[in-house]
Amino acid sequence: MGAYGLLEDADGSLGDDRASQYFRLCAWNAFALQTIADRLLDADTAADPGTVGYVPRETLAFARACYDQVPDWLYLARGMRSDPDPRVADRLPARLPLWEHYEPTRASELRGLQDAFEALQARTETKVNALSGTDRVCAELRHLCAQMRADADYAEQVGVRGSGPVERGEARSHLLSALHRAFMLGQLLALPSLVEVERVEQDHEEDLPLSESPSWLQIGPGWAVVDSGGTRVGVVVRVLGDRATGVFDGLDIAAGVESAGRRVSPKEIAAIRRGEIQLSA
């Protein structure tokens, strides 16, 4: 019950400092993993009350992998209030366990995954719909939410109940994708700077070229720096920030190799383009 109670405390935490954000993220991860495993077991019990305590091997493997992570996230969440541990950043963003394939997917497993998704969706989608910003972070969160809904809708169309083994397998795949996106969305809502990390990782996994509007994580030394009018004023010497959590602290720029240079804060950067930084001044 600790995972459920802790999330309620996290929802009431309004601070935007790093410790508060970490607390909300750790509490969310504990809640989400506990909920997924609980809903899977509850669905199996409802489908076959006569075998309570016995579940299919796939259900057991996935539920156990989720449960195994919960105590760690609870421990980290409770510690964030008194002694914030920066090492939590090394575990972010967290991923759901892989679903092991042993036999055809059962209807009870689909019901459990669907129930788990609906529980996570109810908390994440409401927060995304409440976003009023127009910046890239808000846009990325809305996009991830739309992808989450699309996966869930497709799984429903394939048929969660009464379908054949092929259809059940396809529905399971899309439900797991929807669950993964919901799990990720909760983390990004708790720690918005992770949006940059996740976006860059997705581009890397899909082997995409550098976009026209790259992340600060993709800035390299030597990139041109121009002022608000487009006049070249120097080059990037050093990129400052936490690459594990996506927190951007700015750039060191210089007019030339032997120049003293200066530090530029994120607020002074108007745009990041491929190979070029434009300042607002």
**Would you list the SSEs in sequence order as H and E?**
HHHHHHHEEEEEE
- How many β strands by DSSP? 6
CA-based gyration radius: 22 Å
For the report, how would you describe the main beta sheet?
6 strands, mixed
Total helices: the number is: 7
- Give the end-to-end Cα distance, rounded to a whole number of Å: 53 Å
Low-pLDDT parts are none
Given the C-alpha coordinates, what overall shape results? elongated
Indicate the percent of residues in helices. Answer: 40-55%
Arithmetic mean of pLDDT = 88
Structural class, judged by helices and strands? alpha+beta
Strand order of the largest sheet: 4-3-2-1-6-5
Q: Hey, roughly how much beta strand do the residues contain?
A: 5-15%
Task: Give me some keywords for this one.
281 residues; alpha+beta; 7 helices; 6 strands; 53% helix; elongated
Task: Walk me through this protein's architecture.
Helix 1 crosses helix 2, helix 2 runs antiparallel to helix 6 and helix 5 runs antiparallel to helix 6. Strand 1 and strand 2 form a beta hairpin. The model has no long low-confidence stretch (mean pLDDT 88). The longest helix is centred in the first third of the chain and has 30 residues. This protein has a six-stranded mixed sheet with strand order 4-3-2-1-6-5, with no helix packed on it. It is of the alpha+beta class and 281 residues long. Helix content is 53%, strand content 12%. It is elongated and about 80 Å long.
